[in-house]
Design brief:
This protein is α+β, with helices and mostly antiparallel strands and 473 residues long. Helices cover 44% and strands 20% of the residues. It starts with a helix and ends in a 6-residue tail after the last strand.
Length: 473
Amino acid sequence: MAEQDKENFRDSIGTISKEGKRAWVFPKKPSGRFYKYRKLVSYFLLAFLIFSPFIKVNGNQFLMFNVLERRFNIFGFPFWPQDFHLFVISMIIGVIFIALFTVAFGRIFCGWICPQTIFMEMVFRRIEFWIDGDRPAQMRLAKQPWNAEKIRKRVIKWIIFFLISFIIANVFLAYLIGSDRLIQYITDGPMAHLSTLVALLVFTGVFYFIFAWFREQVCIIACPYGRMQGVLLDNKSIIVAYDHKRGEAENGRKKFRKNEDREALGHGDCIDCKQCVHVCPTNIDIRNGTQLECINCTACIDECDTVMEKINLPKGLIRYASEDEITKKEKFKFTPRLKGYSAVLFILTGVLIGMLFLRNDLEANILRLPGQLYEHKEGNIISNVYTYKLINKTTKEIEDVSFKLLSHNGTIKLVTTDNFTVPAQDLAEGTLFIEINNSALNGDKDKLKIGVYSGDKLIETTTARFLAPRSYN
């Protein structure tokens, strides 16, 4: 029966009351060694997230995810629709990288790197502490009637939250449509781009809803990563863990009493102060063991260390540790699972780097015009009509572009001019005719090799099928 009661916490969520309603979380303001490290990491990542769309590398936006036009920039490398396989490999590498760290260090991504956690805990929550006060003050404010003080604090907080959500929405839009276009829209004025303004306000509302109300529910309910960690974790994973061997001992935890010999009484070092619960942003009790709601934010570690220091007991009752380290005193090992993930990550990264180096700056596609047959001209000349599309993936114009047959003797005639320019980060398309003497053809469908030249320099090769009368020689 005791074991059953001990496991009852798994039947409910800490943010839902017994009546099934939302139980609002009022976490205590964190402090301590890990919190200082988290602030440094968070502010660096915030700066990275905000400024990345506005940084250019070789004329390319550092990070861009233009889904509408299917154009992506990752660390300054442009990816066009024709490079979608490279983008997919990059995303797979990112997933495996997160999985590797989850196997090794649990949900550390959520507590230290996830934008949801960084914005919630390091921006919105800190503003809330500044306006409403710490945990007790927030709880009193929530219960008190709507007097002048409560209205003033709520209105100020909501306005600031909305403004920050609006800024986040603008940054998000810069990732989607490009920072240059966003700046142009701002310069033109909101009335010149009403559809964009509406979309911007919708995103602002979404971000405001998430950070002002939905909050930790994103991590608990919406985000699938918490469920995924249950599959990836094992007893050797380093996570934020409560040392139940030391904390419970033989007779369990007990409130602290001065000058009491806890060891002689058989009680553990946990004094059941519940500060680790009060400081938790998802309102869980880490002493119950690994839970999907835990985002490894380390707030409970800092709080427990502070309490242990005050009562002259060793720190580390809650710490980064594996289950095997707590129960068997085993140190971290590079397990076969970690070796497997590392090998896959290494191979895929090598493949991606190789494909990036082999990728040409110009993508050429030449296709026969659908529904068109060949034309038989004087002198036994066979003519086929084609459409061409050249995509310039660089930030510089490619000038004096022309086509030459490399596999057969023949001529290529453009409908417009013989030489043209492909604009930077744009495409050029048109129509051309290829004419070859029938005697130089091997059958009814010959494969042609065509060179694309910039001046006298060969910059790309492509192939096309040539339709001709069947040869009976």
